[in-house]
Write a structure and sequence with these properties.
By secondary structure, this protein is an all-alpha fold. The protein contains three helices and no strands.
Length: about 70
């Protein structure tokens, strides 16, 4: 655990019960490589990184390897 969080959280705060999710809505998602390629090509490389830390420039530059 990160040192800065140790004063606020305990190990017990991060334990979860074993849960089984019975949600099937994500099974209907269909992804096409051409559509993803079009989205990556149209990214604005000047915009700030997202929460994942990936810049638009990096995604755009690596488009061929990602597909």
């Amino acid at each position: 655990m990160n040192e800065s969080f140790k004063t606020v959280f305990t190990e017990e705060d991060f334990t979860e019960l074993n849960r089984t999710l019975h949600y099937t809505g994500l099974l209907d998602i269909i992804v096409h490589k051409q559509e993803i390629g079009r989205i990556l090509e149209n990214l604005d490389a000047r915009k700030m990184m997202g929460l994942d830390g990936m810049s638009g420039w990096a995604l755009k530059e690596c488009k061929d390897q990602l597909l």
